[in-house]
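Here's what a typical entry looks like (Profilin):
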Amino acid sequence: MSWQAYVDDHLMCEIEGNHLSAAAILGHDGSIWAQSANFPQVKPEEVTGIINDFNEPGTLAPTGLHIGGTKYMVIQGESGVVIRGKKGPGGVTIKKTGMALIIGIYDEPMTPGQCNLIVERLGDYLVDQGF
């Protein structure tokens, strides 16, 4: 299966009538493996900040999590494994695997829990597959 198919079929899937706004799979170096058509242009320093927060949890909290120039307030995650961000009625979930970052961006009516389920389920699967 191509990386694009993981984005199209597993991240942009329907859950209880809702879909993510955008999604992507990136390498730890910031290279884009696959993304939805409307995923924002991620800056290298944004990826560096995300990786640093996975390595040293809490580093993004004072400055916020930035993706494509959009700032999200960092909320509870799973230290070293999942980072979650909130902005107004939407937000973002980022799951780190051994080789990749799985990113899902959502907006109402999708709930944070639905986004978490989609992103973390694919992330857990990829970890099990050695990625």
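The chain has a mean pLDDT of 95.

More examples are in the samples folder.
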